[in-house]
Structure prediction request, 429 residues.
Amino acid sequence: MNRKRFVIIVIVLLLIAGAGFGYWRMGAGGKESSYTTVPVSRGNVTQVVSSTGTLQAVVTVLVGSQVSGTIVKLNADFNTRVKKDQVVAELDQAKFSARLDETRANLRAAEAGLAKSKVALEDASRTFARNKELMQRELLSQSELDAAQTAYDAARSQLNVSQAQVGQAQASMNQASIDLGYTVIRSPVDGIVISRNVDVGQTVAASLSAPTLFTIANDLTKMEVHTSVDEADVGNVSEGQDVTFTVDAFPARRFRGKVFQVRNAPTIVQNVVTYDAVVRIDNKELLLKPGMTANVQFLVSQKEEVLTIPNMAIRFKPPEEKNEAQELLRQEQSRTAPRPGARRTSRSGGGGGAEVRRVRQVRIYVLRDAKAQPLDVQLGISDGSKTEVVSGELKENDPVIIGITSGAAGQSGVANPFQANQPRPFGFR
Prediction:
């Protein structure tokens, strides 16, 4: 009985050992492999050009001061709604009022001088006429007549000088009056104050340039996004094009707009050329504020219900072609590597579209009879994760290979990289 039991135990142990060896052989230590595949499907593909920009009001007015002085009164603050010609600030008027009084007195003095010059001219005119008559009667010498004419000419010139002095004094008084009016600062437009840069008691100096006191947005219900588009993508951006964007303040909400203008003037920074694109949007809810950063997507193309394959299938290469593919990739990266200091400010197709547009015809691999069969296909647009198949012997539900999973025979799908002790896919370039 003990011997029979011993035999049974030995057999059980051998079976367990064989099962463990088989698991190790087929799993952790085996050389068996299976392809991870994804079926070809139909769906919608949207190709976009992505960039970032800044929100601005369509009309933003900087309200400044044309004269220097001390702020004595503020009638507007942040977020204050103002009307055109509404008083928003006042400067100390004492100096300007005194200047106006001074110029007014100078004008009166010049006018008095003008009147005196007129009297002197009339007297000199009478004297010259009388002496001229006496000269004709030979009762006066020629020198006396010449002296009378000289006095007359001098009086006439002095009258002209007095008239100019009156005009100068009048202009000075007008300028003083205008400067006094500049001490009352008014809003040039209807809008909302988005910035106030002064306080009561602060001195503003306008000797070289007008200091900015307020920034007023004309209408925050109409706004613009100013964004920079890379030169490689600017050909896909045009006026009237649909645009969507998000802001960090509302990450779950997507706002819409249209391209208003693509400016021709280039911006060059460290040998990188970009072009400014202006996007007009409606902001009726006043959710968007000036200065917000917008993540913009320009809608380039959209296809519905087309054959699509994942971009991982485009990058997959079998192990026997892996070395060659890596060498070609290194050559391509070396050829297209940016110059030192260069940077890109936008991307196309969600990060993968630019590559797809450059290489239209590619070779992918389809799983047929448990083997990887190469297949040349023509590709269309891409949204960064999947790409349109334009032509080729590819059908819906065909299993396209996206990788190889070692030690997982018969498994179809992508391995979880966060699961412990799980084989990792390979075969990507």
Notes: DSSP finds six helices and 21 strands in the chain. Residues 30-44+305-426 form one domain. The first helix runs from residue 2 to 26.
